[in-house]
Amino acid sequence: MINRRTALAGVVGMFGASVFAPIARAAGAAKASNVPVISEGPPSVAVFTPAQRALMAALSERVIPTTDTPGAIAAGVPAFIEKLLADWARPEDRLPILAGLDAIEARSLVDYKVSGAQATAAQQDALLTLAMNGQLPSAGFFFEAFRQLVITGYYTSEIGMTQEREYLPVPGEYNGEFPYSQVNKVYSS
How many whole angstroms separate alpha carbon 158 and alpha carbon 148? Predict the structure, then answer.
């Protein structure tokens, strides 16, 4: 079975040159066998205040909501994000995430008179849209980095790999007695 360490190594190609630095560091370390697996144990330091943690969890669920498959919270994305930022990010890497969360929280209090974590799904979507469009102070870089963290956390989780996607260690099956009459197309290169 594929594990998070192996999946992380493939994530960098998905985001290309714009990959968020802590993700790139964790993916690079995934090739070393003596590096601890990212999902083991609690974060080495607390990155978020309780209010930031609640907002980060709520927003991660808006990026990948629960539908017919589990969402970001069920996949453990908030814990993954805090672990990644605590153990693989430099202090300067954390600043845009923290500043973006604070900007979203401030805008939610002004616009909706409630904390961003307590805002409705539609209000949270509107706040994320403002961040995505660079219409919040300090949120320009936040949205892309946050989106990458959520997507990476989700698709390298067990839920993301087994319920959202289908893992086939060997695609198809080998059938040595497959009749030629059942072959639909023959491909050549």
Answer: 17
